[in-house]
């Protein structure tokens, strides 16, 4: 259906709406995100700018939840092109860490205590704990025991 709708034309919005409705009843979340992006891109041509923003934000949320840059980028780009101000993208991987957070998480999986890590890095223990907590949030983990799976192999 998305392929047929890509030709544009009067039936485009209807075809994409049908595609979205069909995909909403499946677990094909990335396909749904792409269909929502396509629908959001063509809705303004038929005067539905508010509905367009809603569909594009749904696509963006869905793509981010699936961790798909391939689906996130187009939705974000169409929102920007439409003049919307989408929220900042979530940062939830190793590349989102600051230099200090990276240094701390590299020491944390070992047997060093918080006091030992703070001493090693010449910072207060509370500062080290703050950075470690921020790193856990960005990595989407809950403690040191999850660091091994969250960090790339050295």
From TrEMBL:
InterPro entries: Sig_transdc_resp-reg_C-effctor (IPR016032), Tscrpt_reg_LuxR_C (IPR000792), WH-like_DNA-bd_sf (IPR036388). The keyword DNA-binding applies. It holds the Pfam family GerE. GO terms for biological process: regulation of DNA-templated transcription. Keywords: DNA-binding, Transcription, Transcription regulation. One of its GO terms (molecular function) is DNA binding. It comes from the Bacteria. Residues 94-151 form the HTH luxR-type domain. PANTHER family: DNA-BINDING TRANSCRIPTIONAL ACTIVATOR DEVR_DOSR. This is HTH luxR-type domain-containing protein.
């Amino acid at each position: 259906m998305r392929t047929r709708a890509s030709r544009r034309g009067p039936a485009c919005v209807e075809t994409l709406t049908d595609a979205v409705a069909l995909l909403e009843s499946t677990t094909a979340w990335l396909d749904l995100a792409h269909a929502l992006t396509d629908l959001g891109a063509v809705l303004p041509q038929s005067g539905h700018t508010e509905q367009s923003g809603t569909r594009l934000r749904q696509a963006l949320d869905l793509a981010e939840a699936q961790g798909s840059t391939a689906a996130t980028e187009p939705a974000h780009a169409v929102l920007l092109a439409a003049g919307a101000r989408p929220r900042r993208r979530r940062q939830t991987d190793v590349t989102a860490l600051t230099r200090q957070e990276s240094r701390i998480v590299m020491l944390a999986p070992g047997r060093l205590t918080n006091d030992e890590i703070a001493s090693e890095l010449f910072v207060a223990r509370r500062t080290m704990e703050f950075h470690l907590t921020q790193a856990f949030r960005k990595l989407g983990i809950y403690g040191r025991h999850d660091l091994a799976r969250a960090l790339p192999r050295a």
